[in-house]
Specification:
37% helix; four-stranded antiparallel β-sheet; alpha+beta; globular; two-stranded antiparallel sheet; 227 residues
């Protein structure tokens, strides 16, 4: 093996190389697990330990990111008054979207099978609201701001792993993106270098939880081999 010289620290990396049958068995099991995940709008108020949120963020932190800058911050809220304030502010923006004409007719038609509306009552029910903020820049110890790269891509991947971690623990969530979301920075006292990215209501599904009867895109539409 060739000897490489590095100017920065490197460590050896040799993940398990599994036989193809074993690897396929594992990924089929992972697919079955992921296929059972759904976005939920009907939650139970049953408590969820803070440790669950901590482990979900640990999983999110394993995501690849531009220059390994990890440009995300997860802010977890359990206080009922703050959760209610988030609901009130989110519904103001959502009413402007649904009732004020900010959502064009084509978009409204696309949302129709989900039967969503401006009511975000589940934000008062869930034991946790976690808001992911994206960091365009990150403050450094010397007071300067470090530029981050591929922020949207990096934060999106981290949020995907966060969702999967919640699902693995038997918890449910929803990717809520009220637009605009500047009210979250104000309510949660976030600095100017962060911008709200996604709101995650987190809890157990309600006993009478229902979800739209949807089908995911088949492999024939999602994958194309070239060459």
């Amino acid at each position: 093996m060739a000897v490489r010289e590095h100017t920065h620290p490197f460590v050896a990396y040799q993940p398990p190389r599994r036989p193809i049958p074993e690897g396929l068995d594992r990924v089929r099991a992972l697919y079955d697990h992921l296929e059972s995940r759904r976005s939920v709008r009907f939650f139970s108020p049953d408590p969820v330990p803070a440790e669950c949120i901590e482990w979900a963020v640990r999983c999110a932190n394993t995501a690849p990111s531009g220059a390994h800058h990890q440009p995300w911050k997860f802010v977890a809220v359990s206080d009922p008054a703050t959760r209610h304030a988030i609901r009130v502010a989110a519904e103001i923006e959502e009413r402007r979207n649904y009732d004020g004409g900010r959502i064009p007719a084509e978009w409204r038609a696309a949302l129709a099978p989900l039967e969503t509306d401006a009511d975000k009552g589940y934000l008062d029910v869930v034991p946790w609201i976690v808001v992911c903020f994206a960091e365009k820049h990150t403050p450094m110890p010397d007071g300067s701001l470090r530029k981050n790269y591929y922020v949207n891509e990096s934060v999106g991947i981290a949020c995907g792993l966060f969702i999967e971690a919640l699902h693995t623990m038997g918890l449910a969530t929803l990717t809520h993106t009220p637009n605009p979301m500047a009210f979250l920075s104000r309510l949660l006292g976030r600095p100017a270098h962060e911008r709200p990215y996604i709101v995650f209501p987190i809890g157990y599904p309600a006993d009478d939880c229902e979800v739209p009867d949807l089908r995911r895109k088949p492999l024939t539409e999602a994958l194309e081999f070239f060459g």
